[in-house]
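Researcher: I'm preparing a figure for a lab meeting and need a structural model of a single chain. I don't have an experimental structure, so a prediction will have to do for now. The sequence is pasted below. Please return the structure as tokens so I can convert it later.
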Amino acid sequence: MNGDDPAVFYPKLDQGVASGNWLVTGAAGFIGSHLIEALLRQNQPVIGFDNLTNGCRANLLEVKENVGPDKWKNFRFVKGDLRNRRTCNDITRNVDYILHQAAIGSVPRSITDPVLYHHCNVTGFLNLLLAARDNHVKRFVYASSSSVYGDHEALPKREDRLGQCLSPYAATKLLNEHYAQVFERCYGVHSIGLRYFNIFGPRQNPDGAYAAVIPAWINAMLVGRPVFINGDGESSRGFCFVANAVQANLLAATTQNAAAINSIYNISAHGRTTLNSLFLALRTAVRQHRPEIADYLPRYREFRAGDVRHSEADIFKAQTHLDYRPSHTLEQGLVSTVDWYVRRLRLAGQNPPGARPR
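Model: Understood. Here is the structure written out token by token.
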């Protein structure tokens, strides 16, 4: 993604409201790096925090290239772990706004290792909340997840209607929400939780057994590997381009609407898409770079444990209280994302092969 790329839209901060220091956790990750870029482009001082377990320094190097040396001077990177309470206290001194993105994702991996997920996603979250309380942070915005809706079948998903969690990952995110609300009642820590619905975009890791579906499928199509669909492909999801998530975070951090604070919001675009339809949309986008995949077909395998059948967000609450307005549709986001992965392969010296996976 080039610094002047108009396909990626970063919303503007109200400069009269947003004056202060920002902390972004998960800074070297996919969403965290986009938040940092959005803030630096608007001359905000930012501390980026990451233990680099899942994050990638290359993401920050791309941000540096995009924003230029003058704006990059406003950034400071700190490597550390949120499970260390003293570290959390140190990095939140003189911070006004926290955008907390750091966590371990993946539903199936959490089923394999629930203890790790609790330590990273819950203990780390609690340590950061304590530090925000002790250092008088103005606003604590954190990433929750649509997974908290669990087995509740009604669509679209509304913030006040939850089912039973289907994975340890979902349980950690729901516990985060409970802790944030308790800290408001007990200590006056002002927080806003954002329930993400399948955020995707440039810099999302396409590799590994736990890669998200969109980057994994794009990469497979570009390099000539098969695409696998879990189940019959009629499971559906709400998908949300990363620029929409950036907008939601900045609105949540700076809103002056008292009714918006200490609450939780769905963050997605409009509607939902089946996995089969997503495959066709991605194939259309990738065909602009690889015409030979016109007849490329997916392979189907068993449903994955812990996955929900259908998920779609009702974003009325975020629209009403945060003035959230998704800037990108699924199709627009897919085009921008595919373009970025093509550039990534070319920079790595990998020209997409002509083989047709079956």
